[in-house]
Amino acid sequence: MPDSRDDGMDHRGLLLGDERVLGEVYDAYAEFVYGVALRVTADAAVAEDVACEVFVALWERPYAYDPLQWSLAAWLVAAAHRRAVERVGRGGQSAAGVGGESPDEDAVAASLAGLAPDLRDVVELSYFQGLTYRQVAAKLGVVESVVAERVRIGLVRWDAAARDGAGAVADDGTEARS
């Protein structure tokens, strides 16, 4: 994920209808958004549609994104995941059982590698295998509220690690600093 974007500036530009900003945001995040959608849907055409829908939604409703609550990268990932899971739920394919990963999927997997295992597990199960929080909770033997909190923390730390370029997160879930 890009580390040189200013989410507040991007948000202001989007609110003002600056097409240049949308283009820059798209260039910075489209491959990553597509990779998330592809991991969930296992269908390149559906993943392309999902990625386009995410950026159209950002353009049409930039006020839906709040830079005080999310980084733009985390918001786009959440939007891509939500839309991809909706598509799978309507009869699309899921990534479970599909052999091989595309370069985009490899990039997503590599970016998750720095998360603490408990955070990485819930993000992978809910975001990339399309499981509900209830299913993840049952699979991991924890309550749903723990899953929800770990997903939130995992996405924030995943984005922070990617922005720092280090990708390293300590075993206790805090960002590792050198």
Automatic annotation (TrEMBL):
The keyword Transmembrane does not apply. Keywords: Sigma factor, Transcription, Transcription regulation. Pfam families: Sigma70_r2, Sigma70_r4_2. Residues 26-88 form the RNA polymerase sigma-70 region domain. SUPFAM superfamilies: Sigma2 domain of RNA polymerase sigma factors, Sigma3 and sigma4 domains of RNA polymerase sigma factors. This is Sigma factor. Belongs to the sigma-70 factor family. ECF subfamily. Signal peptide: none annotated. Residues 107-147 form the RNA polymerase sigma factor 70 region 4 type domain. It comes from Streptodolium elevatio. The keyword Transcription applies. InterPro entries: RNA_pol_sigma-70-like, RNA_pol_sigma70_r2, RNA_pol_sigma70_r4_t2, RNA_pol_sigma_r2, RNA_pol_sigma_r3/r4-like, WH-like_DNA-bd_sf.
